[in-house]
Write a structure and sequence with these properties.
By secondary structure, the protein is an alpha/beta fold. It has a single domain, classed as NAD(P)-binding Rossmann-like Domain (Rossmann fold). The chain is built from 9 helices and 8 strands. Strands 3-2-1-4-5-6-7-8 form an 8-stranded mixed β-sheet, sandwiched between helices. Bound molecules: NADP nicotinamide-adenine-dinucleotide phosphate.
């Protein structure tokens, strides 16, 4: 399953959350295929170690790290401008980083922390990198979703509220937003050569995703994950397949799971909702006139 002998020499790929778990395995798989890979997350010690491990395991020295905190719009803007300055092109953006069980609090940007880490941060990053993705076309965007999206709900008047959502609902809302954003991206990118697909890893063994979850949830989840979970290497290969497989070059607006096109959320076809999500997200992350490349396309 998900086997491809695609090579990626000359391609530049950004993997958020590439310092551990699924993102690390994805980055390693892509580096093995010859891509220039940039991994991005918050902890520099983890990033350095991950970069060195990837280089050693693949023999590819074209592997880099850059700091990125999706919970800070300033950090996302810094990361995007570094990418625009240091990279000549961007062939694949993999919005993989995410978190579960974060405190129910507002960020310095006034947004719900879980929503910002799992959705607004990658919305802003993608928006800022889209001109580069377009000029590098054919190019691909892959957004990490999760089965929790099916119980998510988007209420634009309350999506950043504190004290309203438990950590599972907050996660579900953020993953629903990421999936509907992918659908809207797909529609907006028609004819540009840039594709946008979402990906559900299912349940994955031996990652750090439960690090912030309450102890009781950790114990129950660990049992379930060990019983049915997939190996992280296998899931990394699934994402690498979507990123690299030549026959998927024009595949867009799909939701992938178990390496197949999977049943997407029913709301992806509600274009009024996904358009509203796009505009509300631009407002939430304060897209400036200078950043708003859409205004010059109108
Ligand atoms: N594991 C599963 O069973 C499962 C199931 C469904 C969906 N997913 C999704 O798959 C993705 C990867 O999860 P994983 O299991 O590989 O988890 P993981 O091992 O915890 O890896 C998460 C990665 O994201 C980074 N990250 C966390 N918060 C960040 C932030 N604020 N800014 C930038 N980077 C941040 C982490 O690095 P730092 O902490 O150093 O920043 C790490 O590199 C997530 O989006 C998750 O929701 C996982």
């Amino acid at each position: 399953m998900c086997d491809t002998d695609a090579r990626l020499e000359g391609k530049v790929i950004v993997v958020t959350g590439g310092s551990s778990g699924i993102g690390f395995e994805t980055a390693k798989n892509l580096a093995k295929r010859g891509a220039r890979v940039v991994i991005a997350s918050r902890n520099e010690t983890k990033l350095k170690l991950a970069r060195d491990n990837i280089k050693e395991a693949t023999g590819n020295s074209d592997v880099y790290y850059r700091l990125l905190d999706l919970g800070s719009l300033k950090s996302v803007r810094n990361f995007a401008s570094e990418t625009l300055s240091y990279e000549k092109r961007l062939d694949v953006l993999i919005n993989n980083a995410g978190s579960v069980g974060l405190p129910d609090t507002l960020t310095a940007d006034g947004l719900n922390l879980t929503m910002q880490v799992n959705y607004f941060g990658s919305f802003l990053l993608t928006f800022l990198l889209l001109p580069m993705l377009k000029s590098s076309a054919p190019s691909r965007i892959i957004n990490s979703s999760a089965s929790s999206m099916y119980i998510g709900h988007l209420d634009f008047d309350h999506w950043n509220d504190i004290g309203r959502y438990n950590f599972i609902t907050a996660l579900a809302n953020s993953k629903l937003a990421e999936t509907l954003f992918t659908a809207e991206l797909d529609r907006r990118l028609k004819g540009t050569g840039v594709t946008a697909n979402s990906f559900d890893p299912f349940v994955v063994k031996d990652t750090d995703i439960l690090i912030n979850a309450p102890e009781a949830i950790k114990e129950v989840s660990k049992f379930f994950i060990n019983l049915v979970g997939l190996k992280k290497e296998e899931v990394g290969q699934q994402i690498a397949y979507i990123a690299a497989e030549p026959t998927l070059e024009e595949e867009s607006g799909q939701h992938f799971k178990f390496c197949r096109k999977w049943l997407n959320h029913w709301l992806v076809s509600d274009t009024d909702l996904t358009k509203k999500l796009w505009e509300a997200s631009k407002a939430a992350v304060n897209i400036s006139n200078e950043e708003d490349w859409e205004s010059s396309e109108r």
